[in-house]
Write a structure and sequence with these properties.
Helix content: 25-40%
Radius of gyration: 23 Å
Structural class: alpha+beta
Number of helices: 17
Low-confidence stretches: 5-11, 21-63, 66-70, 470-475
Mean pLDDT: 83
Largest sheet: 10 strands, mixed
């Protein structure tokens, strides 16, 4: 749970991190045996949308299509008609073969026209799920206090970058900034950066934060002045890598709440021949699903990177998230170079997971391969691998710790008591009590949600992580 220097990690976490680090250095994408620009010319408009990011590439790419029926079986006459996103994905698979679970997740969530975060309302009681910041303002306020404490540990710099990955509806940042108003010097030092891909969510965030402009086409504006407090410059970025850092020495304080669970995962399964990647193929049966999971018969680049990973029983699966590890490496490098700290909050554990891919719609779990694009896709976060990635990048990391433990160390009891005293009636008191239970109870979010901090090794241990035991976390 703690590394300074790097502890001896669990074998599986270490193997995954080493494999991903090697994989990240390879400029190789697996699709089929032709140059990508030609594939784009041959593909339909739906395939073009999916492969748009690869236009202009001159890479030779390949895939083992042994797991795919050639040609694809005809659709069952009773099969439901696919939606637009399902049709686009099916066209791509028919043309170039089954796609990785990671690519499937990426398209389902962020397709520019039919992706879930582009078309659906994910957050809040009217959305598909409720996050901790939506349950109580206290959550965001305590995260704000953590940021203020970290800023003090940094020596109270006159200017710093406050970064949030995936701000959702802007609720967490709104509550954070409200708490920050009690610390004028901190508030005045903020240079705010939000990483958000969805233009629709970006507009919602701008309204929640009371920005001067709420046009989603704007990449920068200001949060309106608050009393004697100045305007806060705010910038939106599609990718974390777009945040500037080379032209100055501003330290960074980064928060990420339920962001890493949405990053794509690769899935592998043990076969008599070793690890093989699990892919998404078209399902032509009478099933309501348009897609199915298949296991590659041959080895590809991704599964070859699993060679050093301990084999399990035949049929057992394991999930990895190379994008998560690479992103933590980049965050860690910036913290090492410029100073700062990060707070990662999500659900998961300290070991790799076998089968955590899930879909949520209307606050219920649904089939991830059913009515694709209408439900949120996510997977448990492997905090152990993220911690190792941070430590091997030359910074310190502690966690994961439970949400309940972290909130109690940060003073949730005292803050809730103040809210109870100011409650206008019994109904408000009940709401406050229910929110506390939901955030901290072992049967609710208290243990399932975990916190990890990554910080400059020259700094003291960040708030909420003091006296963390060195023992293993329970999954």
């Amino acid at each position: 749970m703690f590394c300074r220097p790097i502890p001896r990690p669990q074998r599986r976490c270490k193997a995954i991190h080493r494999n991903v680090r090697s994989y990240s250095k390879k400029d190789h994408i697996e699709v089929t045996s032709f140059e990508l620009p030609d594939a784009i010319k041959q593909a339909s408009a739906g395939i073009e949308a999916i492969l748009d990011a690869q236009k202009g590439a001159n890479k030779i790419i390949s895939i083992d299509t042994s797991a795919l029926h050639q040609p694809p079986a005809p659709r069952h006459p009773d099969k439901p008609k696919p939606n637009k996103l399902e049709s686009s994905l099916a066209d791509a698979i028919t043309a170039v073969g089954p796609m990785s679970v990671a690519n499937f997740m990426r398209q389902v969530l962020m397709h520019p026209e039919q992706g879930y975060y582009v078309t659906e309302e994910p957050f809040g009681t009217r959305g598909d799920f409720i996050t901790s910041p939506e349950i109580s303002q206290v959550f965001g306020e305590l995260v704000g206090i953590w940021c203020v404490n970290t800023w003090m540990q940094l020596g109270k710099p006159a200017s710093f970058r406050l970064v949030e990955l995936g701000p959702g509806r802007g609720t967490l940042m709104k509550d954070l900034l409200r708490a920050a108003k009690s610390f004028p010097s901190f508030y005045k030092a903020i240079n705010l950066h939000l990483v958000e891909r969805s233009p629709r969510l970006k507009e919602i965030q701008a309204k929640a934060l009371d920005c001067k402009e709420t046009d989603p086409s704007n990449v920068s504006t200001q949060i309106k002045a608050q009393g004697n407090l100045p305007e806060i410059p705010i910038n939106w970025h599609v990718l974390y890598e777009e945040i500037p850092h080379e032209e100055d020495d501003m330290p960074m304080i980064l928060i990420a709440h339920e962001f890493f669970d949405c990053l794509p995962i690769n899935v592998f399964q043990t076969t008599p021949q070793g690890w093989r990647e699990v892919l998404i193929d078209v399902d032509s049966s009478e099933s309501a699903n348009q897609f199915r999971m298949v296991v590659m018969k041959g080895e590809n680049t991704a599964s070859s990177m699993m060679a050093s990973f301990p084999l399990a029983e035949v049929g057992e699966r394991i999930e990895t998230s190379p994008e998560s590890i690479i992103l933590v490496q980049k965050i860690s490098q910036r913290i090492k170079d410029k100073g700062g700290a990060a707070l990662i909050m999500d659900y998961g554990g300290d070991k790799p997971f076998k089968n955590s891919l899930r879909a949520i719609k209307d606050h219920k779990f649904v089939d991830p391969l059913l009515d694709v694009g209408s439900s949120d896709l996510s997977a448990n976060v492997d905090f152990g691998s993220l911690r190792i990635a941070a430590c091997e990048s030359g910074v310190s990391a502690i966690g994961s710790v439970s949400q309940s433990d972290w909130l109690h160390r940060m003073g949730i009891m005292q803050r809730m008591a103040i809210l109870m005293q100011n409650a206008k009636n019994e109904a408000e008191e009940n709401d406050i009590e229910m929110a506390y239970e939901r955030l901290t109870s072992e049967t609710e979010m208290g243990q399932t949600y975990r916190f990890l901090t990554v910080y400059d090794s020259k700094l003291p241990i960040p708030a909420g992580f003091e006296e963390v035991e060195m023992s293993e976390n329970a999954q």
